[in-house]
User: Fold these one by one.
Assistant:
Number 1:
Amino acid sequence: MSGLFGLANLPYGVCSVDGSAPRAVTRLGDHVVDLATLLDDDVFAGPSLNPFMAQGRARWDVVRTAIGEALAGGLPADGVHAIGDVRMHLPFEVADYVDFYASEHHASNLGRLFRPDSPDPLTPNWRHLPIGYTGRASSIVVSGTDVVRPCGQRLVDGVPELGPSLRLDLEAEVGFVVGAGSPMGTPIPAVEAAKHIFGVVLFNDWSARDVQAWEYVPLGPHLGKSFASTISPWVVPLAALDHARVEVPRQQPAPLPYLALDEPWGLDIDLEVELNGEVISRPPYRSMYWSPAQMLAHLTVGGAPTRTGDLFASGTVSGPELDQVGSLIERGKGFLEDGDEVVLRATAPGVDGSRIGFGEARGRIREARS
Amino acid sequence: MSGLFGLANLPYGVCSVDGSAPRAVTRLGDHVVDLATLLDDDVFAGPSLNPFMAQGRARWDVVRTAIGEALAGGLPADGVHAIGDVRMHLPFEVADYVDFYASEHHASNLGRLFRPDSPDPLTPNWRHLPIGYTGRASSIVVSGTDVVRPCGQRLVDGVPELGPSLRLDLEAEVGFVVGAGSPMGTPIPAVEAAKHIFGVVLFNDWSARDVQAWEYVPLGPHLGKSFASTISPWVVPLAALDHARVEVPRQQPAPLPYLALDEPWGLDIDLEVELNGEVISRPPYRSMYWSPAQMLAHLTVGGAPTRTGDLFASGTVSGPELDQVGSLIERGKGFLEDGDEVVLRATAPGVDGSRIGFGEARGRIREARS
């Protein structure tokens, strides 16, 4: 496991030790390293990565190099803790959160389930723009936080009742963290996305399918999604994924110019969905139709500003095969029970055939409040 | 005009004078009064109302009484400026923002326009729950901020193109500001909403109808709304609206118990939509089907937390008559042109037959970026 968090990775997180004030750290193998101590830089002394994230790409690159050099000889003497001795916190303050719908396989599968009478499972707009909707920022929690089964209105024999969701699902996603924001009225072209995207997390967009099905026409999901979303505690720097860059699948029709890419923006991330200790699916991120650069370009083309801490997620990652789907509804074998524990994991190619790891996005379902 | 901002109102805002650091103020007639000075309380010395809003209902009530007593004899000697000499700022930091769809008249009008083939203009869920969706917090701006015509994908002869919206609309709404938040997993019953709602603003939810129509199926509006929303600079305390409380229209079927009300939660607010100096509509807020207490109860029933600075808006306020609609699309006489200026205003009953006023929500349309 240490190999997944070697010098080619160096993710960013925030942790506390025995109730101490949370501080920014990186991870090397099975240890965390305090960054304010390592680099003598107070930007890392606070409880979130936002101040560092706001400094922008040039500074991120300098700091990443400095961390790599400082740790090249091994762990330092000070500011080091075993990963098992620390508590990880939400690594950044989430500003606005947008969830996309970028997997053609997932969107097709869901279209067949939610709109069975429609001749095409994809809506007419799907291949023209990365569909997304804004979600609730305040219910994003860090890995390890229990998820209480949500209540909501759902149909029972055709009549809406309030009660615990009976179709509670997971959604395996990848989230992209905006470090350097952009002012209102200034779109971010797809070709400049890397200047703004600080890093990548795993994201479980827990979904109450019965609540969602009843509420979502015409204005989209709300309570079906707003009760909780889980992110991994480690933000993997975009720079650590250089070796994971692949071409996106062929996009037909060709995207409009503002969505055009000048470099490979697909990401060869292998996800893994574990349910109660058993791996039930291995969604391949490289199968995603819309890339994060295109999502960010679309999100801002109307003039919306972005802020440090904005998070946009890919939507459920589903490959073409049944053992590659990123949600239970697509798998067709039932939904989450109380006590179930879901863990998302992922790896991606590093240097020289090695792999880099992501943190886990773990959550256990607790029974609904009575 | 002074009468609208008398002792029965005492709204909260944030302003600066000649480039000074923004501070919290109240308004009496045509003057603003610095609250940190008036009350000798540093909670008002910062650039947003959030610290005060977080203190909760009991403190809000004490402070409102104290302000009223301090100003009963007229304007104080220090910390007073003429309204024309100050610049108003966004009065609070917006946390999560949710927009509802609470007017039966508006939802019916839009349903007929967007889904002409549907036998019922209201979707089957509409009378069972206050439909809402999460919107972008970072593009909420204060009155007086120009609105650049957004670009986005919209259909031209059936083909999606990127370009300036050709169907730019306004939406006259009322926004409700959450002062005291609530933890994840703890719903706010409708009967406790007043403990959490700090105050009320006017809200223009600018909408690009052509962008919205192309993008919104299946996950709801995104770029059609995310480019800008304008709020009035004055937060009218909920307590100032005691005399505006009226029964909501009859709700049939009876709402589920979590949406039941034990006091009148309709608000007799008269809105006014001015376009280029001419009042084109007078939407009556008392005609709104779903009340703010029900919106907040619904928003949280699934377990979503709320935070100080959360904003939820009513959705377009439209009455039953054509001169009471809160959007141009319902009026049917065209959309906004570059240079058009929209001003939302409102008044509500105060004590003894007087009226209290809201601040303006003003915005002028600037041409799209080239």
Number 2:
Amino acid sequence: MKKIYRLKDFPIDEKALMLQETLFHNANGYLGVRGNLEEGLPQEFNTMRGTYLNGFYDVIPMKQSESLCNLVEEKDTMLNVADFQSIEIFFDGERFSMLDGRAEQLCRTLDMDAGITERSLAWHTNSGKHIQICFRRMASFVRKNMFTIECRLKCLDADCGLDIHSHQKALVRNYSNPADPRVGQNNKLLLHPTVHLLENGTSVLECETTVSSLKVCTAVQHELSRKMRESISYDEIEHSCTASYSGSLKKGEELRLVKYIAVCDSRREAEPVKAALSYLGESFGELDELYEEQAEYLESFWERSLLHIETDDDSGLAMVFNQYQLLQSVGSDGICGTASKGLSGEGYEGHYFWDTEIYILPFLSCTNPELARCQLGYRYATLELARENAKLLGHKKGVLFPWRTVSGRECSGFFPAGSAQYHINGDIAYAVVQYYLMTGDFEYMAKEGAEILIETARLWMDVGNYSKGKFVINDVTGPDEYTCIVNNNYYTNASAKYNLTWAVKAARLLSDRGMWQELEARLGVSSEELEGFGKAAEAMLLPYDEALGINPQDDSFLSKPIWDFENTPKENYPLLLHYHPLCLYRHQVCKQADTVLAYFLFDGIESRETMLSSFEYYEKLTTHDSSLSNCVFSIVAARLGLKDKARSYFGDSIRSDLVNSYGNTGDGIHTANMGGSYMTIVYGFAGMTVTESGIGFAPSIPDDWRSYSFRIGYMGRSLEISVNTEKASVRLLSGEALDIRLFGQLVRLNDKTEVSI
Amino acid sequence: MKKIYRLKDFPIDEKALMLQETLFHNANGYLGVRGNLEEGLPQEFNTMRGTYLNGFYDVIPMKQSESLCNLVEEKDTMLNVADFQSIEIFFDGERFSMLDGRAEQLCRTLDMDAGITERSLAWHTNSGKHIQICFRRMASFVRKNMFTIECRLKCLDADCGLDIHSHQKALVRNYSNPADPRVGQNNKLLLHPTVHLLENGTSVLECETTVSSLKVCTAVQHELSRKMRESISYDEIEHSCTASYSGSLKKGEELRLVKYIAVCDSRREAEPVKAALSYLGESFGELDELYEEQAEYLESFWERSLLHIETDDDSGLAMVFNQYQLLQSVGSDGICGTASKGLSGEGYEGHYFWDTEIYILPFLSCTNPELARCQLGYRYATLELARENAKLLGHKKGVLFPWRTVSGRECSGFFPAGSAQYHINGDIAYAVVQYYLMTGDFEYMAKEGAEILIETARLWMDVGNYSKGKFVINDVTGPDEYTCIVNNNYYTNASAKYNLTWAVKAARLLSDRGMWQELEARLGVSSEELEGFGKAAEAMLLPYDEALGINPQDDSFLSKPIWDFENTPKENYPLLLHYHPLCLYRHQVCKQADTVLAYFLFDGIESRETMLSSFEYYEKLTTHDSSLSNCVFSIVAARLGLKDKARSYFGDSIRSDLVNSYGNTGDGIHTANMGGSYMTIVYGFAGMTVTESGIGFAPSIPDDWRSYSFRIGYMGRSLEISVNTEKASVRLLSGEALDIRLFGQLVRLNDKTEVSI
């Protein structure tokens, strides 16, 4: 199957182009460049022209409207670091632009086997000459610091004058849109030039951030068709550098310009300039090799990761697209995480949320465990900042991970919907456990995982307390931001219970292998403390309403009136943009899966009847205004046997960014939903569960699908699950035999085991 | 009894002077001038040099750290309007200053019979000449636009060279202190000059605000001792004007300079400049008459208002001080309210809170009902803004008064501790009822009061809902800001119940007099709606805990751990400056009286046992970090017969500003506490209650007091209550005979009724 996403003869307007900038961005987990037009756009166009490095940020003020004690008053913001995309082209002196009605045969392609985006079109000059133009871009997965832009030009029917100006500009600003609360509103210049060199046609710019004092260097070198080489000149002005070619394009001749860009920053390299020049030197002139490496890398990726769906619609391609975007977004060096918008745009300022642990890590743990390990490693590296955060919030022990961050420090402005989301601790703990259960990576557990589990568990002990014999957790905010600062949020309590339980288990695991003493001493853990964890987990209050037979989202949720959905006009969604928070808080209305999410993560936490009743109850109340919702409803529906609903929620999730269903994909992709759409199949339709007692499946398939299949790694083995309308099979592709559960029955998997649905 | 507060030989340092600026400010409910030193202070001194007009404000941006729907993003701020205090004096060319160690016999006096402040001292020149210096200031209660500064100089032992420069400066800024969240942090120049005249020695400056487009004019004219008149010259530069005298001071001769200042603004006068000149013209040269009027005004005020206490300490004087400050603070024109700091400083930016209705109006309703009426009139005038505020918060009907404001629009930055304090509606409704019950002013009820009661009641119907047969109110914040966004805050529900009940009663009252139809039609009130009010009031949930026999502050209050008071160091109070809000929210700890306040306002709402248990419970949890707390604990203690506690809380309240017990009196007085200290006696020790069935008393007296007495107006009558250690008496000073309750027994009050304690 060719993994190509292609758009043809698309409209050329602001909205379409903003969306394409996102959909056709090129990234490799470190470096991301939006799919902006090389030739630029008129100034009045709303465009987000951006280059981003994962984890590269500055710190900007975030004044509180009222100063309360220990509120966050500054935040990390992902920086737009340099514009090296620009290539202005003139044919017979006429400036090439897509906007003047002279462009035809428009086509934009994302080739997910090649790892390349392409934009091609035909353009005619005023005198009627026909020009073929093609741009190809790549962010190398193998050489993370390298980006290339290949530009090919051909005039079909005549000779034609040709002028090219290719720029690199260091002093760029972030995108800002004061009208939209979901993107940054800071457009101050935060980068200050430190180095500016132009030597032998290589332009080197280094800038430093204002507060975080991080440096970024971009080095650009142009490779040209032989005949062009002598006619090129270089010019530098005000921290930008331009390579100019002036000559002609002979009839039928193809001219090629390749821009090699090396990007380095001081978080990864001691001397960014030196490193950038070195990377550039290694790659310059090797475009074909770079392309080849890229394809090989992706071949291996798809081999491990591909989730293949056969349906009558384009769900299969959409799934491939989502998986590819996750690969583009995930940091792989342990000093950065995965931004909620990946590296595709500035929405949410490049912050990392729980999206990573709950929505993206499952995909990574199943297919690319070393990447999952990097993500968990990033959190471990920020443990001290999480400890400081806990102290700021008045806790005497434990760590509290930030709700949103780049550097690891809390960057939430409105704490009731930010810092108060203590479940982030449970989410990270959950991911630690799931990674361990999927990979059996005991070394990780011993080195980092157990420490995270203990320190997060400690926080629960400090934030919660016993009341009438139950362990209660007051004044926190669950995943559903339409209700803030509540008592005993079901999801939070369930995840705290899991966290506490696993802190004890981790200690036992290490103890069993004689590796507990070091950590025990270092963290000062007593057996009484572990006992306390276990007791609190046992006594954890999980709200249950006898009358309705459901789990209330929190202590007071059911005492509120149900939102008047009937009289809420369609244009008032998402509600958060149209109603004061207090108005939302005061109603039974959910932005997203909350209690329902707990049913997915903590399999078997309630009886099927309770889960079914709750599912149906919350379904009526949930607006899915968050992109993190539909996938979870799909998974839980599938597990409850509500196949049609599962299929329907899957449909709402799978194409979300491709069709811009949230209206803001222009600001960046929704990585959590992409991970979520993967999970709808693996954890939903295929019914995969992973617990201490092993891995299990309970496959089903939507009525309108022909088949789906995927491969996962589990405890050093490779498994392939294939499901079609006739049967479902699980195969052991490599590794030792093991027992798995199929629909709850233990089955020995040696070579090939098949079950019929 | 002479009502003079005097400070002698005080220290001259920043803290002392800031405090004196507040304590010796002169105000008349319209115009307030801080007691700054005429001769100025060195630039590095922290001083709040200010002139304020009640209700004169500009609108400044208040950016939210995260933009949520309909949050407040700008706020009113009371402006510092002009500096006309400055008088620089040179003796033999040496600049007079209190700071150079040459000042002696320092004395500052607030004469509350005369309505004048005085600062007098002796100063010696380097050559040893002894100068007597005296400044007197007055903000006229009779001519609200007039302020005077009288300066008298005498050299006792020699002739002395004398130079005086008296300034008026229009372009002033507000005080700012970025380190203190309780004062403003805006120091932009918000006033822009529109008129600048200097004619016949009269300096006229008019300025306009930036956003609110209000104009203020200050006109200054100097009256001089005869011999000085010829040696005076005037100079203007950059929107400031200086009158300069150069001459000499003969041995033993007293020279006098009087500065007459007229202040007018465009909220009250169509042409402020014209009006200011007219006021100035009427008063110029009439200082003695102004002084006389002032004394007469105060004589009448004290006649009506004086609460006289005889004790061994200075409680009596402190009470007089508090009453005087209230008079200085209360707006009397119906277009302004009473700022929490009066007109004495910029703390809380000159905003009006519930302080007015719950803490200050009782004093006014008892003694100066026309002022009470003005305050209620201000709220009525802002009804439309309150309706808009309700809409912004998502309510379909009713009005929601702003938690803090000048203009009437909501100015809370952090809504969980601001807009969410819905009890403001109940507080205003309560004040409407109490004013009516005290005065019998039916005309007010018909014209304004009933409408407020109906519209506030409507909001409760929209914010609350039925749950399990009870009317519940979710997601509001009660008076205690150490717990935010709670369900069924006892105080809020109690005040909503009262509000709803009285909306029905008001309708019936008007109906009984045939005056309901107009309002009924205008507001579209149906009998079903009124029935709904009654039903909701009846079904109102008032939390009660069987086990403890107390009223929990809200639904979940008791499930939280009690604050660790034992391990909280003294320097960590007030807690709000040392702990993150979430940390406070999650504990049983109260900033101030909350449930206990309900016991005072809604007399008889619970059984004595419940109130006693609750009182004792909350007493242990309350830090009194708010200045609104001690007085309430005193009142309720007195009513519960806990005499020693009542006395002790009274002691914590009565001298609060005089001894700067909250450490921030430098930013302004605490008017609510001042009203509260009045109430501790009238409503506390004297046990006054006013209900539909009449007025009652249950007098007691602290063991260490000799006597107390006060006069109040009630339903057109004047009553005097005198209590000493032997007996308590209630006398009817004027008006028709009436029945009153004494310790619950009906007594006919004709001429004089006495009861023994």
Number 3:
Amino acid sequence: MKKTLLKKYAELIVRSGVALKKGQSAFILSELEIEDFTAMVVEECYRAGAKKVIVYWNSPKVRKITMKKSKKEDLASFTPMDEALMKWRCDELPCLISLTSSDPDGMKGIDMGKVAYVSRARYKAFHSYIESSENKYQWCIAGVPGAAWAKKVFPDLKKKQAIEKLWEAILYTSRADDGNGIANWEKHDADLKARCQYLNSLRLKSLHYESKNGTNLTVGLIPGVIFLGGGEENLKGHYYQPNIPSEECFTSPMKGEAEGIVYSTKPLSYNGVLIKNFWVKFHEGKAIDVHAEEGEEALRSILTMDEGSAYLGECALVPFDSPINNTGLLFYNTLFDENAACHLALGRGFTNLYPNYEQYSEDEIHSFGINQSMSHVDFMIGSEDLNITGTTEDGREIAIFRNGNWAF
Amino acid sequence: MKKTLLKKYAELIVRSGVALKKGQSAFILSELEIEDFTAMVVEECYRAGAKKVIVYWNSPKVRKITMKKSKKEDLASFTPMDEALMKWRCDELPCLISLTSSDPDGMKGIDMGKVAYVSRARYKAFHSYIESSENKYQWCIAGVPGAAWAKKVFPDLKKKQAIEKLWEAILYTSRADDGNGIANWEKHDADLKARCQYLNSLRLKSLHYESKNGTNLTVGLIPGVIFLGGGEENLKGHYYQPNIPSEECFTSPMKGEAEGIVYSTKPLSYNGVLIKNFWVKFHEGKAIDVHAEEGEEALRSILTMDEGSAYLGECALVPFDSPINNTGLLFYNTLFDENAACHLALGRGFTNLYPNYEQYSEDEIHSFGINQSMSHVDFMIGSEDLNITGTTEDGREIAIFRNGNWAF
């Protein structure tokens, strides 16, 4: 890919994505094989006036060996460096840039129970840090092609070509293929904002999903909780774009109010394991049964992470005619695939969707119906014939989606 | 390079190099481009019973950008994570594996004054941690070919071939090319120990260096301070091999007693800058003048790091007929080049060479004549015609080296 276009993409991530403030530090999660692009992002951070830029490099190879060979107690125990990092992030509030490039099959063969045990223990140890910094810093996830990921998306191409093709797809779906990402995002963000404004004006109390694939699900909504899309403002008043790309208008539903069954329409890559062709059955808000043609163990492990991980945390509306779906590609990566079609998420809801959320404690907001969990796992349910009908607080039925796309 | 040989080399580093103890943790310094071999070392650490294996990845690209773009005050300031790491290393005493693979020219163009400022500030901040863990853990430095390093050593070869050739040279000089590294090192270590025993029996009070290249230098030694070579025992009673390869018998000279001039016989790669064809003039132990045909700024920056950085910390004896010299290669890497020929080091001496050093404070040992400094920079002075003559405490002259090789 042309270096000038990549530099512009790095610029989009730093200037619009996290919108780094002069004098702020940046914390970057990246992977070894995408060193070149990561270096461009680091350089752009300094150009934007970053104080410190700290990169944490993940080696999928070393991670896999560690997960295999280490005792789960040793994996779960944390070092003083882990704790210092959490504390530094709370005290300094650096923006977080997460560059996703992983092999969707990279963790195949690893005991999912062990992975879940470690996640749980670490979440427990660091929960207070996570809560205390929530909604206080800007963050952004963006995609960068790794070789194994590119080969998964384009199995018939050679490595180098596959990477080039995945770059093309990433830049196209991220509205960065013409080098004008920052301006394109300003326009796109205004569109998403207008749709959310309309949705919020309806005062919906539930959504009903129906498709010929078998989906038949009703989800309750929480009075006052908003639909959000595109950019967000954190508690420091900084506006940022958490996901590049992003096509969704999303909300957090009422915990305990989900009835029916929903069928996945795309595979889900979870902790490096692919889960394919699955359904989830809900009763009184809880996923009480699941089935997957592939990866069912990983799917079940999602539900048992903690008390809230079997309840819904998100309903996201994405037209079937999205740029991502129009590529005709399956990305095997949630950031992209979730923006291809309507999706739901199991697990944690978004407390910042509650009106004046900063005036309430976390516990209060959860008591209003926003689900609490350490995990948050999106899965795709959008299809060509998906209809979504909203019911308003005063009982009117409103067409939200017809045949997979916006009805308004 | 064959994977089986590389696995054996990883085994040598973990089992003989740091001799990791069951239940001990390991701290690995590595570089992004040598992920595959690093993963082998990580796996071997777990096989040896490591509790935690923590890898700190260096990206030369990001480091260079950071050094260029960051203010020196921001670079010098440390994060809570830096301090937590120092504290963890003091508390847990993990063994340290340092895999060296860097481009010898990788830091070309970076302001050496800035680099020195940052090193000084960090050393000051962490000095107490460094002192408190000294001689308490096992450590080992070993070489792994990076692409730029390989191309520097074999400029006429293509990248892949150059890496293969450098692997051959590293495994040959590390006595690991036949897959029997561990047994080979046991034998080699016994040889070095016998030479040191003889040197220590002589009770030398000075060494005189002379060569046709102009070298004419006398260095005073400290009564009782020993020559050491090969493996070392730390204060926990763990025996380990700090350098793979290692051909030297070395001691720390008397601070203040060096007179004359010494000419370098190989280039010195310092902080990613090559220093070529240089001499150093000593008076009353101090380097009072230097000249280099290339890299003189970097050479001068070594002398001004702190009060002790212009004094000698090490005299190392290595025969000109060493395996490394016999390859005919210049490695542009101190670990290898210092084991090709006799060398001296400017800066810190080795306190553990003083008899019963654990019974004295650091300050006391320095007052006995072992130099103190934050830096320690080796440079090569061995040549084909180098003669070294020792003078004993009772005035006898003993031939130590004749024509570049051991005289005994």
